[in-house]
Amino acid sequence: MGQGIGQDLIENELAFARFLDWLRIPSASAVAAHAPDVERAATWICEHMREVAGSDLRVCRLPGAIQPSVVGRVEASGAADYAPTVAVYGHFDVQPPGTRTEWSTDPFGAEIRDGWIYGRGTADSKANSFIVLEAVKRLANSGSLPVNVQLLLDGEEEIDGVGIPDHVASEPPPDAAIICDGALWDDRTPSFATSLRGTLYYRVKLRAAERELHSGSFGGAALNAAGAMIECLYGASRGRIGHGRESSAELEALHDGPETLRRAGATPADDTAAERFYERTVLRSAIDVNSIGAGEIGLQKTAIPDEAVANVSVRIAPGDDLQRIDVEFTERMRQHAPAGAELSIETLAAVPPGETPTDSEAVNLGAGAFERVLGARPHFVGSGGTLPLFSVYADLGVPVITTGFATADGAAHAADERFPLTNLPLGIKAICETLRALGSLRR
Ligand SMILES: [Zn+2]
To answer: What pLDDT is stored for residue 212 in this prediction?
Structure first.
Protein backbone atom coordinates (compact mmCIF):
# COMPACT_ATOMS: atom_id res chain seq x y z
CA MET A 1 0.00 0.00 0.00
CA GLY A 2 1.06 3.58 -0.45
CA GLN A 3 2.69 3.07 -3.85
CA GLY A 4 2.68 6.15 -6.01
CA ILE A 5 0.62 8.25 -3.66
CA GLY A 6 3.27 10.86 -2.95
CA GLN A 7 5.81 11.23 -0.20
CA ASP A 8 3.45 13.01 2.12
CA LEU A 9 1.03 10.15 2.53
CA ILE A 10 3.60 7.38 2.35
CA GLU A 11 4.94 8.87 5.55
CA ASN A 12 1.50 8.51 7.00
CA GLU A 13 0.39 5.09 5.85
CA LEU A 14 -1.82 4.59 8.86
CA ALA A 15 -3.92 7.63 7.95
CA PHE A 16 -4.17 6.35 4.37
CA ALA A 17 -5.22 2.86 5.49
CA ARG A 18 -7.86 4.43 7.71
CA PHE A 19 -9.06 6.51 4.77
CA LEU A 20 -9.57 3.34 2.69
CA ASP A 21 -11.59 1.87 5.58
CA TRP A 22 -13.75 5.00 5.55
CA LEU A 23 -14.38 4.59 1.81
CA ARG A 24 -15.56 1.04 2.46
CA ILE A 25 -18.40 2.27 4.67
CA PRO A 26 -21.47 2.53 2.37
CA SER A 27 -22.71 5.84 3.81
CA ALA A 28 -25.52 6.32 1.26
CA SER A 29 -27.73 8.90 2.96
CA ALA A 30 -30.69 8.33 0.61
CA VAL A 31 -31.09 4.67 1.57
CA ALA A 32 -32.82 4.10 4.93
CA ALA A 33 -31.09 0.73 5.39
CA HIS A 34 -27.71 2.50 5.30
CA ALA A 35 -28.51 4.87 8.19
CA PRO A 36 -26.19 2.90 10.54
CA ASP A 37 -23.41 3.27 7.95
CA VAL A 38 -23.84 7.05 7.78
CA GLU A 39 -23.56 7.03 11.58
CA ARG A 40 -20.42 4.84 11.37
CA ALA A 41 -18.84 7.15 8.81
CA ALA A 42 -19.53 10.09 11.15
CA THR A 43 -17.98 8.28 14.11
CA TRP A 44 -14.93 7.49 11.97
CA ILE A 45 -14.27 11.25 11.63
CA CYS A 46 -14.30 11.82 15.40
CA GLU A 47 -11.98 8.85 15.92
CA HIS A 48 -9.64 10.04 13.19
CA MET A 49 -9.49 13.53 14.67
CA ARG A 50 -9.43 12.46 18.30
CA GLU A 51 -5.80 13.37 18.98
CA VAL A 52 -6.05 16.79 17.32
CA ALA A 53 -4.88 19.59 19.58
CA GLY A 54 -7.62 22.03 20.62
CA SER A 55 -10.48 20.16 18.97
CA ASP A 56 -13.99 19.37 20.22
CA LEU A 57 -15.52 17.47 17.30
CA ARG A 58 -18.75 15.59 17.92
CA VAL A 59 -21.33 13.58 16.00
CA CYS A 60 -24.67 15.33 16.24
CA ARG A 61 -28.13 15.33 14.79
CA LEU A 62 -28.77 18.97 14.05
CA PRO A 63 -32.33 20.38 14.17
CA GLY A 64 -34.20 19.45 11.01
CA ALA A 65 -31.57 16.89 10.01
CA ILE A 66 -32.36 13.38 8.81
CA GLN A 67 -28.79 12.09 9.07
CA PRO A 68 -25.97 12.79 11.56
CA SER A 69 -23.25 15.34 10.90
CA VAL A 70 -19.96 16.11 12.59
CA VAL A 71 -19.35 19.66 13.81
CA GLY A 72 -16.84 21.25 16.11
CA ARG A 73 -14.02 23.70 16.47
CA VAL A 74 -10.28 23.37 16.24
CA GLU A 75 -8.64 26.32 17.95
CA ALA A 76 -5.82 28.31 16.39
CA SER A 77 -2.41 27.24 17.68
CA GLY A 78 -1.69 30.54 19.44
CA ALA A 79 -3.75 33.56 20.52
CA ALA A 80 -7.01 31.91 19.42
CA ASP A 81 -8.98 34.92 20.70
CA TYR A 82 -7.38 37.14 18.07
CA ALA A 83 -7.24 34.70 15.18
CA PRO A 84 -9.78 34.82 12.34
CA THR A 85 -12.34 32.02 12.12
CA VAL A 86 -12.58 29.93 8.97
CA ALA A 87 -15.41 27.48 8.41
CA VAL A 88 -14.28 24.34 6.61
CA TYR A 89 -16.93 22.14 5.01
CA GLY A 90 -16.92 18.67 3.49
CA HIS A 91 -19.43 15.81 3.24
CA PHE A 92 -19.11 12.11 3.92
CA ASP A 93 -22.44 10.78 2.73
CA VAL A 94 -22.46 9.25 -0.74
CA GLN A 95 -24.86 8.49 -3.57
CA PRO A 96 -26.25 4.95 -3.72
CA PRO A 97 -23.95 2.85 -5.96
CA GLY A 98 -26.55 2.24 -8.69
CA THR A 99 -26.43 -0.84 -10.93
CA ARG A 100 -23.67 -3.16 -9.71
CA THR A 101 -23.02 -4.64 -13.17
CA GLU A 102 -22.00 -1.24 -14.54
CA TRP A 103 -19.06 -1.16 -12.11
CA SER A 104 -15.77 -2.84 -12.96
CA THR A 105 -15.05 -3.14 -9.25
CA ASP A 106 -16.85 -3.43 -5.90
CA PRO A 107 -18.35 0.07 -5.34
CA PHE A 108 -17.31 -0.16 -1.68
CA GLY A 109 -14.06 -2.03 -2.14
CA ALA A 110 -11.76 1.04 -2.31
CA GLU A 111 -9.69 -0.73 -4.98
CA ILE A 112 -6.47 0.96 -6.12
CA ARG A 113 -5.79 0.59 -9.83
CA ASP A 114 -3.62 2.56 -12.30
CA GLY A 115 -3.12 5.47 -9.94
CA TRP A 116 -6.81 5.82 -9.03
CA ILE A 117 -8.86 4.87 -6.00
CA TYR A 118 -12.15 3.42 -7.23
CA GLY A 119 -15.37 3.48 -5.29
CA ARG A 120 -18.62 5.26 -4.53
CA GLY A 121 -17.86 8.44 -2.62
CA THR A 122 -14.20 8.74 -3.69
CA ALA A 123 -14.63 11.77 -5.97
CA ASP A 124 -17.82 12.95 -4.28
CA SER A 125 -16.64 13.63 -1.70
CA LYS A 126 -14.78 11.60 0.92
CA ALA A 127 -11.35 12.29 -0.65
CA ASN A 128 -12.01 16.03 -0.51
CA SER A 129 -13.23 15.72 3.08
CA PHE A 130 -10.20 13.61 4.04
CA ILE A 131 -7.98 16.32 2.54
CA VAL A 132 -9.45 19.08 4.74
CA LEU A 133 -9.40 16.88 7.85
CA GLU A 134 -5.75 15.97 7.28
CA ALA A 135 -4.76 19.57 6.57
CA VAL A 136 -6.38 20.84 9.78
CA LYS A 137 -4.97 17.92 11.77
CA ARG A 138 -1.41 18.41 10.54
CA LEU A 139 -1.37 22.17 11.15
CA ALA A 140 -2.97 21.84 14.60
CA ASN A 141 -0.69 19.02 15.71
CA SER A 142 2.43 20.86 14.55
CA GLY A 143 1.35 24.01 16.41
CA SER A 144 1.04 26.02 13.19
CA LEU A 145 -2.71 26.47 12.69
CA PRO A 146 -3.11 30.26 12.40
CA VAL A 147 -6.94 30.35 12.27
CA ASN A 148 -9.77 28.99 14.36
CA VAL A 149 -11.42 26.32 12.26
CA GLN A 150 -15.11 25.65 12.46
CA LEU A 151 -15.34 22.12 11.03
CA LEU A 152 -18.57 21.11 9.30
CA LEU A 153 -18.75 17.54 7.99
CA ASP A 154 -22.10 16.84 6.46
CA GLY A 155 -23.88 13.47 6.48
CA GLU A 156 -26.79 14.56 4.28
CA GLU A 157 -25.40 16.63 1.43
CA GLU A 158 -26.56 14.15 -1.20
CA ILE A 159 -30.16 14.44 0.00
CA ASP A 160 -30.09 18.24 0.26
CA GLY A 161 -30.23 18.07 4.07
CA VAL A 162 -30.86 21.30 5.95
CA GLY A 163 -29.01 20.38 9.18
CA ILE A 164 -25.71 22.15 8.49
CA PRO A 165 -27.06 25.06 6.38
CA ASP A 166 -29.66 25.89 9.09
CA HIS A 167 -27.04 25.50 11.84
CA VAL A 168 -24.66 27.87 10.01
CA ALA A 169 -27.41 30.42 9.37
CA SER A 170 -28.16 30.57 13.12
CA GLU A 171 -24.54 30.94 14.30
CA PRO A 172 -22.25 34.02 14.24
CA PRO A 173 -20.78 34.09 10.70
CA PRO A 174 -17.12 33.08 10.21
CA ASP A 175 -14.60 35.45 8.57
CA ALA A 176 -14.32 33.14 5.56
CA ALA A 177 -15.33 29.66 4.49
CA ILE A 178 -13.81 26.83 2.49
CA ILE A 179 -16.19 24.37 0.87
CA CYS A 180 -14.13 21.42 -0.37
CA ASP A 181 -16.44 19.41 -2.62
CA GLY A 182 -15.61 19.48 -6.29
CA ALA A 183 -13.00 18.97 -8.96
CA LEU A 184 -9.94 20.61 -10.45
CA TRP A 185 -10.44 22.47 -13.71
CA ASP A 186 -7.80 20.28 -15.36
CA ASP A 187 -4.72 18.28 -14.29
CA ARG A 188 -2.98 21.24 -12.70
CA THR A 189 -5.46 24.10 -12.67
CA PRO A 190 -7.63 24.48 -9.60
CA SER A 191 -11.10 25.94 -9.84
CA PHE A 192 -13.05 28.21 -7.47
CA ALA A 193 -16.82 28.35 -7.92
CA THR A 194 -18.29 31.84 -8.35
CA SER A 195 -21.93 30.76 -8.51
CA LEU A 196 -24.05 27.68 -7.97
CA ARG A 197 -27.50 26.79 -9.18
CA GLY A 198 -30.30 26.13 -6.70
CA THR A 199 -32.58 23.11 -6.81
CA LEU A 200 -36.29 22.40 -6.55
CA TYR A 201 -36.94 18.69 -6.30
CA TYR A 202 -40.44 17.32 -6.84
CA ARG A 203 -42.22 14.01 -6.56
CA VAL A 204 -45.19 14.11 -8.87
CA LYS A 205 -48.05 11.61 -8.65
CA LEU A 206 -50.82 11.30 -11.15
CA ARG A 207 -53.96 9.19 -10.72
CA ALA A 208 -56.12 8.49 -13.74
CA ALA A 209 -58.46 5.72 -12.53
CA GLU A 210 -59.60 3.91 -9.41
CA ARG A 211 -57.79 0.74 -10.45
CA GLU A 212 -55.81 -0.85 -13.30
CA LEU A 213 -57.98 -1.61 -16.33
CA HIS A 214 -57.98 -4.28 -19.05
CA SER A 215 -56.44 -2.64 -22.11
CA GLY A 216 -58.74 -4.64 -24.38
CA SER A 217 -61.97 -3.67 -22.65
CA PHE A 218 -61.00 -0.06 -21.88
CA GLY A 219 -58.05 0.87 -24.15
CA GLY A 220 -58.97 3.94 -26.20
CA ALA A 221 -61.70 5.03 -23.79
CA ALA A 222 -60.09 5.23 -20.34
CA LEU A 223 -57.49 7.85 -19.42
CA ASN A 224 -54.05 6.24 -19.11
CA ALA A 225 -51.96 7.44 -16.15
CA ALA A 226 -48.64 6.82 -17.96
CA GLY A 227 -49.71 8.78 -21.02
CA ALA A 228 -51.17 11.59 -18.92
CA MET A 229 -47.95 11.87 -16.93
CA ILE A 230 -45.89 12.04 -20.12
CA GLU A 231 -48.16 14.83 -21.41
CA CYS A 232 -47.72 16.81 -18.18
CA LEU A 233 -43.95 16.38 -18.11
CA TYR A 234 -43.52 17.11 -21.80
CA GLY A 235 -45.66 20.24 -21.56
CA ALA A 236 -43.96 21.47 -18.40
CA SER A 237 -40.39 20.99 -19.56
CA ARG A 238 -40.72 22.48 -23.06
CA GLY A 239 -39.21 25.94 -23.53
CA ARG A 240 -37.25 27.96 -21.00
CA ILE A 241 -38.05 28.34 -17.36
CA GLY A 242 -36.84 31.46 -15.56
CA HIS A 243 -34.70 34.17 -17.16
CA GLY A 244 -31.13 33.10 -16.49
CA ARG A 245 -28.30 34.88 -18.29
CA GLU A 246 -26.81 34.78 -21.76
CA SER A 247 -23.31 33.47 -22.20
CA SER A 248 -20.64 34.71 -24.64
CA ALA A 249 -18.62 33.01 -27.39
CA GLU A 250 -15.48 33.43 -25.23
CA LEU A 251 -17.07 31.74 -22.24
CA GLU A 252 -18.39 28.89 -24.36
CA ALA A 253 -15.01 28.39 -26.08
CA LEU A 254 -13.39 28.04 -22.65
CA HIS A 255 -15.76 25.27 -21.66
CA ASP A 256 -15.81 23.20 -24.88
CA GLY A 257 -19.33 21.85 -24.55
CA PRO A 258 -19.21 19.41 -27.50
CA GLU A 259 -16.12 17.70 -26.07
CA THR A 260 -17.50 17.71 -22.50
CA LEU A 261 -20.72 16.05 -23.65
CA ARG A 262 -18.83 13.56 -25.79
CA ARG A 263 -16.49 12.56 -22.97
CA ALA A 264 -19.42 12.12 -20.62
CA GLY A 265 -21.08 9.80 -23.16
CA ALA A 266 -24.03 12.23 -23.37
CA THR A 267 -26.20 13.19 -26.36
CA PRO A 268 -26.87 16.93 -26.86
CA ALA A 269 -30.45 17.77 -25.88
CA ASP A 270 -31.00 19.85 -29.04
CA ASP A 271 -29.18 21.65 -31.89
CA THR A 272 -27.61 24.40 -29.80
CA ALA A 273 -27.08 22.56 -26.49
CA ALA A 274 -23.45 21.59 -27.18
CA GLU A 275 -22.37 25.05 -28.39
CA ARG A 276 -24.15 26.73 -25.44
CA PHE A 277 -23.14 24.15 -22.83
CA TYR A 278 -22.00 26.63 -20.18
CA GLU A 279 -25.11 28.74 -20.62
CA ARG A 280 -27.36 25.69 -20.37
CA THR A 281 -25.68 24.13 -17.35
CA VAL A 282 -24.66 27.19 -15.33
CA LEU A 283 -26.43 30.36 -16.44
CA ARG A 284 -29.93 29.00 -17.12
CA SER A 285 -32.47 27.10 -15.09
CA ALA A 286 -33.25 23.58 -16.27
CA ILE A 287 -36.03 21.04 -15.75
CA ASP A 288 -35.09 17.36 -15.77
CA VAL A 289 -37.20 14.27 -15.25
CA ASN A 290 -34.98 12.11 -13.04
CA SER A 291 -37.18 9.02 -12.93
CA ILE A 292 -40.61 7.93 -14.07
CA GLY A 293 -42.70 4.89 -13.28
CA ALA A 294 -46.09 3.36 -14.12
CA GLY A 295 -47.38 -0.17 -14.57
CA GLU A 296 -45.20 -3.26 -14.26
CA ILE A 297 -42.33 -2.87 -16.70
CA GLY A 298 -40.99 -6.42 -16.22
CA LEU A 299 -44.21 -8.11 -17.33
CA GLN A 300 -45.94 -8.39 -20.68
CA LYS A 301 -49.16 -7.25 -19.10
CA THR A 302 -52.12 -5.79 -20.97
CA ALA A 303 -53.33 -3.33 -18.36
CA ILE A 304 -53.81 0.43 -18.36
CA PRO A 305 -51.92 1.89 -15.39
CA ASP A 306 -54.05 3.75 -12.86
CA GLU A 307 -51.16 5.68 -11.34
CA ALA A 308 -47.86 7.17 -12.50
CA VAL A 309 -45.03 8.69 -10.45
CA ALA A 310 -42.12 10.89 -11.49
CA ASN A 311 -39.23 12.61 -9.76
CA VAL A 312 -38.29 15.94 -11.30
CA SER A 313 -35.38 18.25 -10.52
CA VAL A 314 -35.37 21.92 -11.48
CA ARG A 315 -31.92 23.54 -11.29
CA ILE A 316 -32.27 27.26 -10.68
CA ALA A 317 -29.79 29.66 -12.26
CA PRO A 318 -28.20 32.56 -10.36
CA GLY A 319 -30.52 35.55 -10.66
CA ASP A 320 -33.65 33.39 -11.03
CA ASP A 321 -36.12 33.40 -8.15
CA LEU A 322 -36.87 30.12 -6.37
CA GLN A 323 -40.48 30.98 -5.50
CA ARG A 324 -41.31 32.17 -9.01
CA ILE A 325 -39.83 29.07 -10.61
CA ASP A 326 -41.77 26.92 -8.12
CA VAL A 327 -45.05 28.60 -9.07
CA GLU A 328 -44.29 28.46 -12.79
CA PHE A 329 -43.36 24.77 -12.78
CA THR A 330 -46.40 23.64 -10.79
CA GLU A 331 -48.72 25.80 -12.95
CA ARG A 332 -47.27 24.31 -16.13
CA MET A 333 -47.78 20.78 -14.80
CA ARG A 334 -51.41 21.51 -13.89
CA GLN A 335 -52.08 23.22 -17.23
CA HIS A 336 -50.96 20.16 -19.15
CA ALA A 337 -52.77 17.60 -17.00
CA PRO A 338 -55.63 16.05 -19.04
CA ALA A 339 -59.14 16.58 -17.65
CA GLY A 340 -59.95 14.15 -14.86
CA ALA A 341 -56.31 13.39 -13.97
CA GLU A 342 -55.57 13.88 -10.29
CA LEU A 343 -52.15 15.46 -9.91
CA SER A 344 -50.26 15.84 -6.63
CA ILE A 345 -46.91 17.60 -6.48
CA GLU A 346 -44.77 17.22 -3.40
CA THR A 347 -41.66 19.41 -2.96
CA LEU A 348 -38.81 17.36 -1.49
CA ALA A 349 -36.09 20.03 -1.61
CA ALA A 350 -35.91 23.78 -2.18
CA VAL A 351 -32.47 25.43 -2.25
CA PRO A 352 -31.96 28.91 -3.73
CA PRO A 353 -29.06 29.68 -6.11
CA GLY A 354 -26.08 31.72 -4.87
CA GLU A 355 -23.13 33.85 -5.97
CA THR A 356 -19.94 34.82 -4.14
CA PRO A 357 -17.75 37.88 -4.87
CA THR A 358 -14.39 36.98 -6.46
CA ASP A 359 -12.52 40.09 -5.31
CA SER A 360 -12.64 39.53 -1.53
CA GLU A 361 -9.46 39.39 0.54
CA ALA A 362 -10.14 35.77 1.57
CA VAL A 363 -10.64 34.56 -1.99
CA ASN A 364 -7.48 36.38 -3.11
CA LEU A 365 -5.44 34.83 -0.29
CA GLY A 366 -6.84 31.40 -1.19
CA ALA A 367 -6.11 31.87 -4.90
CA GLY A 368 -2.51 32.86 -4.08
CA ALA A 369 -2.09 29.78 -1.86
CA PHE A 370 -3.43 27.44 -4.54
CA GLU A 371 -1.17 29.05 -7.14
CA ARG A 372 1.90 28.51 -4.95
CA VAL A 373 1.11 24.81 -4.52
CA LEU A 374 -0.34 23.87 -7.92
CA GLY A 375 1.59 26.33 -10.06
CA ALA A 376 -1.54 27.80 -11.64
CA ARG A 377 -4.04 30.42 -10.56
CA PRO A 378 -7.54 29.04 -9.94
CA HIS A 379 -10.05 29.25 -12.72
CA PHE A 380 -13.04 31.26 -11.49
CA VAL A 381 -16.10 29.56 -12.83
CA GLY A 382 -19.82 29.12 -12.20
CA SER A 383 -21.09 25.65 -11.40
CA GLY A 384 -24.35 23.99 -12.36
CA GLY A 385 -24.55 22.01 -9.11
CA THR A 386 -26.22 22.91 -5.83
CA LEU A 387 -24.77 23.35 -2.36
CA PRO A 388 -27.25 24.73 0.16
CA LEU A 389 -24.41 25.99 2.34
CA PHE A 390 -22.97 28.08 -0.50
CA SER A 391 -26.26 30.00 -0.73
CA VAL A 392 -26.31 30.53 3.05
CA TYR A 393 -22.79 32.03 3.03
CA ALA A 394 -23.66 34.12 -0.03
CA ASP A 395 -26.65 35.54 1.90
CA LEU A 396 -24.55 36.18 5.02
CA GLY A 397 -21.89 37.97 2.95
CA VAL A 398 -19.21 35.46 3.99
CA PRO A 399 -16.54 35.08 1.28
CA VAL A 400 -16.35 31.43 0.33
CA ILE A 401 -13.70 29.41 -1.47
CA THR A 402 -15.54 26.53 -3.15
CA THR A 403 -13.10 24.10 -4.62
CA GLY A 404 -12.04 20.46 -4.74
CA PHE A 405 -9.48 17.96 -6.00
CA ALA A 406 -11.53 15.35 -7.86
CA THR A 407 -11.32 15.29 -11.66
CA ALA A 408 -13.84 16.01 -14.41
CA ASP A 409 -13.66 12.33 -15.44
CA GLY A 410 -14.05 11.08 -11.86
CA ALA A 411 -17.59 9.75 -12.61
CA ALA A 412 -19.26 11.30 -9.57
CA HIS A 413 -22.79 9.88 -9.13
CA ALA A 414 -22.00 7.26 -11.81
CA ALA A 415 -20.44 3.79 -12.04
CA ASP A 416 -16.65 3.46 -11.59
CA GLU A 417 -16.39 6.67 -9.59
CA ARG A 418 -12.69 7.37 -8.94
CA PHE A 419 -10.17 9.80 -7.49
CA PRO A 420 -6.51 10.14 -8.52
CA LEU A 421 -4.13 9.12 -5.70
CA THR A 422 -1.67 11.94 -6.39
CA ASN A 423 -4.38 14.52 -5.71
CA LEU A 424 -4.55 13.49 -2.06
CA PRO A 425 -1.13 14.88 -1.02
CA LEU A 426 -1.56 17.75 -3.50
CA GLY A 427 -4.90 18.70 -1.93
CA ILE A 428 -3.59 18.44 1.61
CA LYS A 429 -0.73 20.79 0.70
CA ALA A 430 -3.06 23.28 -0.98
CA ILE A 431 -5.50 23.40 1.94
CA CYS A 432 -2.63 23.69 4.48
CA GLU A 433 -1.23 26.60 2.47
CA THR A 434 -4.67 28.22 2.22
CA LEU A 435 -5.29 28.00 5.96
CA ARG A 436 -1.82 29.46 6.58
CA ALA A 437 -2.59 32.31 4.17
CA LEU A 438 -5.98 33.00 5.77
CA GLY A 439 -4.13 33.58 9.07
CA SER A 440 -3.42 37.09 7.80
CA LEU A 441 -7.12 37.78 7.17
CA ARG A 442 -8.33 40.96 8.85
CA ARG A 443 -11.18 40.19 11.24
ZN1 LIG B 1 -22.81 14.46 -4.92
So the answer is: 97
| Tally of CA atoms within 13 A in the half-sphere of 428 that contains its CB | 22
Cα(275) to ligand 1 centroid in Å equals 26
Q: Name 51's bridge partners.
A: none
This prediction has a pTM of: 0.84
The Å distance, Cα 327 to ligand 1 centre, comes to 27
pLDDT of residue 8: 59
Phi, psi of 343 (to 5 degrees): -110, 130
Using the mean position of ligand 1's atoms as its centre, give its distance from the Cα of residue 163 in Å.
Answer: 17
Distance in Å, CA 304 to ligand 1 centroid: 37
The SS3 of residue 54 is coil
Please work out, in degrees rounded to the nearest 5, the angle formed at the alpha carbon of residue 420 by the alpha carbons of 416 and 425: 145
The DSSP annotation for 332-390 comes to HHHHHSPTT-EEEEEEEEEE--EE--SSSHHHHHHHHHHHHHHSSPPEEEEESS--HHH
Asked if residues 124 and 82 have their Cβ atoms less than 8 Å apart, the reply is no
pLDDT of residue 264: 84
CB 423 within 8 A of CB 409: no
Predicted confidence at residue 9, as pLDDT, reads 60
Please give the mean pLDDT across all residues of the chain: 94
Close Cβ partners of 221 (under 8 Å, ≥ 6 residues apart): none
Asked whether residue 139 carries a pLDDT value surpassing 90, the answer given is yes
The continuous run of DSSP H or E covering 435 comes out as helix 423-438
Name the pairing type of β-strands 69-74 and 58-60: antiparallel
The Å distance, Cα 158 to ligand 1 centre, comes to 5
C-beta atoms surrounding 405 within 10 Å? 26
Confidence tier at 255 by pLDDT (50, 70, 90): confident
Percent of the chain residues topping a pLDDT of 90: 89
Beta pairing, strands 176-180 & 400-403: parallel
pLDDT higher than 80, residue 234: yes
